[in-house]
Amino acid sequence: MSGASANLGLIDVSFGLDPSIYKDFMELPQGDCVQAEYVWLGGDNELRSKTKTLTGRTTVNSIKELPVWNYDGSSTKQAPTESSEVLIKPARMIRDPFRRGNNIIVLCETLNTDEEPLKPFNQRADAKKFFDMRLEVEPWFGIEQEYTLFQPDNETPLGFPKVGLPPEQGQYYCSTGTGNAFGRMIADCHYRACLYAGLTISGINAEVMPGQWEYQVGPCLGIDGAYQLWLSRYIMERVCEKFGVIVTWDPKPKKGDWNGAGCHTNYSTKAMREQVDGEEAPYDVIIRAVKRLGERHKDHIHIYGTGNDRRLTGKHETCGIDEFRYGVADRGSSIRIPRDTYNAKKGYFEDRRPASNMDPYLVTSRIFATTEAIPWTPSANSSPATWK
Q1: In 10 A of CB 9, how many CB atoms?
Q2: For 206, 226, 285, 300, which has the most beta carbons within 10 A of its beta carbon?
Q3: Local structure of residue 135 (DSSP, 8 states)
């Protein structure tokens, strides 16, 4: 915490920025309008945003009230200069925890000028098609997003000295106290901002490496899990802006004997959660789904994030990237079946393979498609670039 505060002071001094001046202006009334922050994914799967003033109104009650907008795709590696317009169509909106009031943040999908999904960048369109095929299945997702906080040099994680290494990992997981927990202020600010925004954040905890944390999104129904994860990532990047700290989603942010960062994806369907008279036992449905994931292990690894080979080594609570196995309460497996699920013979399972930089549109929809035996083919453009 002290490191984050010190970094904020250094950033403010070096750039001559005073947060109290900003606060003075943000307290001014904004008149008869709503500020909508449109957020989308750029050419490297990075988050981008810009603001639109919606005049003559003080609230937005539905996503349908929001207009389609556009941006310069030649500046985001998504269009040539001679035909640079990319359309952004609102898909999900939340309350804005930064501007507050009735202002909103709007997650958008990218379209070409014919209003067709912008390929290969728009993974949302295909994801929605998969989920819409079988809405009655009621897929739930709980996504555990791990991330690592770095000092402004982008080389030193919070809790690491400038020279040498901190004590070995072990004491940092779910830790408390100076010398153990680094970045709690950022984790708490993000947590509260997400709750204010209306996202389903079910908890947070410090992770195994210094400066590494996790938050959990869900349970969410269908594609809403992907929407909420993207929006929560956007909020995290904005929170870190304020502290002058860098957040990385890289799956192996520090070389050596340190845990990587994953995005474990918990999954269930209605048939896995409850017994219906005359239908298959929930635990049998779970095991069949897990085995189907194993049959397509390589296809899933292909879309589970860039740099995942540096994380899935068979060490540090992972299974090797070329191996697939499942087990009860086994955090060294590809798929973990929780002890509670095994005992109750119903519930959910955890796919531990996705990397922290995975695209949730791809991961959630393909888990759904594979377990429901819906055909799909991985493409060369499916795997996102490593986030900076």
Answers
A1: 10
A2: 226
A3: G
Summarised one tens digit per residue, pLDDT across range 149-176 is: 999 999 999 999 989 999 999 899 999 9
- The confidence band for 383, taking pLDDT boundaries of 50, 70 and 90, is very low
The pair of structure tokens assigned to 330 is: 């086994």
Alpha-helix runs per DSSP H in 134-223? 184-197
Whole-angstrom Cα distance, residue 27 to residue 382?
Answer: 43
Domain final position from 62, 86, 119? 119
CA neighbor of 303 nearest in space, from 262, 357, 251: 357
Q: Measured between alpha carbons, how far is 140 from 368 in angstroms, rounded to an integer?
A: 10
Question: What phi and psi values does residue 70 have, to the nearest 5 degrees?
Answer: -150, 170
What residues make up the domain containing 100? Answer: 31-119
* 113 and 140 assigned to the same domain: no
DSSP state of 211: T
SS (H, E, C) 280-347: CCHHHHHHHHHHHHHHCHHHHHHCCCCCHHHCCECCCCCCECCCCCEEECCCCCCEEECHHHHHHCCC
Taking CA atoms, 9 is separated from 3, 14, 182, 188, in Å, by 10, 9, 17, 19
| Pair of tokens at residue 189 | 């600010």
The two three-digit tokens of residue 208, written as one number: 């195994």
The distance from CA 354 to its chain's CA centroid, rounded to whole angstroms, is 11
Q: Is residue 188 part of a domain?
A: yes
Q: pLDDT by residue (tens digit) across 171-199?
A: 999 999 999 999 999 999 999 999 999 99
Overall domain count for the chain: 2
